[in-house]
Every structure is written in structure tokens, then in C-alpha cells.
Amino acid sequence: MSSVRSLCVFCGAETGKRPEYSEKTAEFGGLLAKRGIKLVYGGGSIGLMGRVADAAIASGGDVTGVIPACLKNRELAHPEVRDMIVVGTFEERKARMYSISDAFVALPGGSGTLDELFDVLSRTMLGMNDKPVGILNVSGYYDKLVGFLRHVKDEKFAKSIDDRLVIDEDPVKLLESIINRGKRK
């Protein structure tokens, strides 16, 4: 049995310029619901955050939003998310999402998404996190980042990311890999 009962998604408050970003985000949100995995996310109703929550809700899934008070109106806290946790700071948001999630996946997004991803990835690289971490690499969005992470390894500033970070462009394959890593914990 998988130990992944809740999965935290990091993603943008914008939708980006490619329709595939929204399509794959919605597919991933629906998959979580269909697999009975609770979605934990940033709490917004706009951008990819809104899309992942909408898809999970539409598929009958459980959703928990975690949003800082300063963004509650700016990112329009999702009105259909019944479990909305309002925190004081971004640091509290990350800490709360980390504490209630069994795994993490980054979808396309900007600096906030990267901050959240690198926070859990750093914990993983330091041995402080044994929860699965993944990237949904929609239309090659993260290709340059993955290349840079391999460069960091090649330059001896980090060990290999390949055994610590699941990367796939297919939402189904990514989720299966995350679930399988969750079983090994």
C-alpha cells in the first residue's frame, strides 16, 4: 500500500503561454482525485493553482489550500476549497504544506514555485526529507532547470538528483513513480 495519501502541488498563479500547461495541470489534479490522494496546494483560484484545484474538486477529490493572509485576496482564495488554511507568512505556508503532505510535485510556475521546489529538494539532498519529490515537465518547461541541476552535480556541488527527483512529462507516469517511491519509505 502506498504511503502517499496527500500530495502537495507547487504551481503558478498564472497559466503561462502554452495551453498544455493548463491541460496537464488539470489532468494531474483529476488523477489525484481518482487515486484518492488529497491535493495540498497554495490555495488560489487563479492560474494553474485554480486549474489543479478545480480539476480535483470536479473529480470528487479532497483539497486543502494553504494561503498566506497577504495573498488571500490577491490570489483569490478558492471559494470551493472547504479546507482552506490561512497562515501569516510564506515560511509558515511552506512549513504547513510540508507537514501535511506525503509527497511533492512541481508543475510549471515562477519564482514561488521554484522556491517551494528547492526548499523540499534541499531537504531531500541533505537527508532531512524522505518524501518523494517530482517535476511534471510539461512541454519541456523544466528542461533547462534539470540541465542546470545536472551541471551542479557535475561541478561537485551536489550529488546526483536522478535518484532523488522524479521527472516526467506524462502525468500518469509521474504519479505512478511518486506512489512507488512512497511505497519504499
Helix content: 40-55%
Order of helices and strands: EHEHEEHEHEHEH
Instruction: Figure out the total of helices.
Output: 6
CATH C-level category: Alpha Beta
Q: How confident overall, as mean pLDDT?
A: 93
**Which CATH architecture?**
3-Layer(aba) Sandwich
Number of domains: 1
Radius of gyration based on Cα positions: 15 Å
Beta fraction: 15-25%
Number of extended strands:
7
In angstroms, what separates the terminal alpha carbons?
11 Å
User: What is the multimeric organization of the chains shown?
Assistant: single chain
Low-confidence stretches: none
Coarse morphology = globular
Q: Which fold does the CATH topology refer to?
A: Rossmann fold
- Provide the structure class: alpha/beta
Strand order of the largest sheet: 4-3-2-1-5-6-7
Largest sheet: 7 strands, parallel
